[in-house]
Amino acid sequence: MTLFTFTPLDTLFFRDGRPYNKNESNSQVVSQFPPFAPTLIGAVRAAYARSLGWPEKEWDIHIKQKLGSGKDLSPVSFSGPYLLSKDKDKNKKPVFQMPASLVKGANGNLVRLRPGPERRSDLSETEKVRLPEPHPPTNKYEPVSDWLMAEGMQQLLEGELPDPRTVLDNDKLFRHERRVGNWRDAKSRTVKEDNAIYSPAHVRLARDVALALVATGLPEVEPDNPAPTAGESRMCWISREERKLDLPVAPKLEAVNGILRYCAIFITPLDIEGIGLPKPNAPYANLPGKLVSACIGRAQRAGGWLGTSAGAGEPQPLRTLLPAGSVFFMEADGAAANEVRAMHSARIGTRTDWGFGQILIGVWGKE
């Protein structure tokens, strides 16, 4: 298992699914963050291909056997991406997008959401559903867009509210930085047309913050460095370590009256193409039991470009993703505790070898 750490040499730029073309309004193009896994995976595979002698044309059979071909990653598999930040002991640990089951109450403190009593809803024409409600009850609360340190995530998995000191503002990890440029003719090196100004907002990581991927099946060579990463060929230094990433551990799971209540917290986006949206009171993907309720952020649309280096030069169709931080509240038979624990840090949904759908298992929360 190989841990890759991306250290930017300057700012980075990650496009979303919106157009970014000449003669279009580019004044509101803000770098997406964190990026989707295929962007960083492409950077790693290209860096390895260069180390393996890639002649800047289509990969030969020797490279494809080691790095996969086009959309097929076999024999390689990736997890992530993760955001790493140094803790007080100067160790780089993952930080997580705030789970949607945590909201901010009227007094500014964190409040946990959990399934409420059964109610009639337009989510189901035939059955009552259990919508997420604040526990303890409060009349006013709002979403939180911060990040959660590993220690806080461990507390949440075990049913506790995270210590406020484990909550990190976006500004402590990254900030957006506006850039202005002019399109110029490549031959004359002059600006000849109107509407030539473009103004993207790049992202700059804070000191001691980095992006990371975990991979299995890669050849034992060092990636070529520094490596173009994401839009506008921004550069990163990709470091490589043979170790796994230390994630929070699964808590003890106990059934109550024969029913095991657990939650699946997504730490990477879930690709729902081919499996559809989750429905209440029904099984979903390969999670044991049935879905009772869920806290889901706004859906994301991810596209991208599959370059000629891997055998296909074409834009990829937009796919629908449920964002990292989404939380599924599940109920399973009490005898399934070991099966549920085995799902901790597993990946579900579509394109799991591309890093999508990784979950952590926790409990609903202590009374």
Describe the structure.
This protein is 10% helix and 37% strand. By secondary structure, the chain is mainly beta. The protein has a domain at 2-93 and 170-241. Strands 1, 2, 3, 8, 9, 14, 15, 16 and 26 form a nine-stranded mixed β-sheet that branches. A five-stranded antiparallel β-sheet has the order 19-20-25-17-27. The protein has a four-stranded antiparallel β-sheet with strand order 6-5-4-7, with no helix packed on it. Strand 15 and strand 16 form a beta hairpin. The longest helix is centred in the N-terminal third of the chain and has 15 residues, at 37-51. It is globular and about 75 Å long. The mean pLDDT is 87.
Short description:
The protein has 367 residues and is mainly β. The protein has four helices and 27 strands.
Low-pLDDT stretches are: none
> Structural class of the helices, strands and pairings?
mainly beta
The coarse silhouette is: globular
Q: How far from one another are the termini?
A: 39 Å
Number of helices: 4
Give Rg in angstroms: 22 Å
Sheet bearing the most strands, described?
Answer: 9 strands, mixed
Question: Helix coverage percent of residues?
Answer: under 10%
Q: Would you report the number of β strands? A: 27
Strand content: 35-45%
Q: Mean pLDDT, as a whole number?
A: 87
List the helices and strands and how they pair.
Blueprint: E1 2-8, H1 37-51, H2 61-67, E2 77-86, E3 92-97, E4 102-105, E5 110-121, E6 124-135, E7 141-143, E8 147-149, H3 150-157, E9 167-168, E10 174-178, E11 181-182, E12 197-198, E13 201-205, E14 209-216, E15 227-228, E16 235-241, E17 259-266, E18 270-271, E19 282-284, E20 287-295, E21 300-302, E22 305-306, E23 314-315, E24 319-322, E25 327-333, H4 337-341, E26 354-355, E27 359-363
Parallel strand pairs: 2-26
Antiparallel strand pairs: 1-14, 1-16, 2-3, 2-14, 3-8, 4-5, 4-7, 5-6, 8-9, 10-13, 11-12, 15-16, 17-25, 17-27, 18-24, 19-20, 20-25, 21-24, 22-23
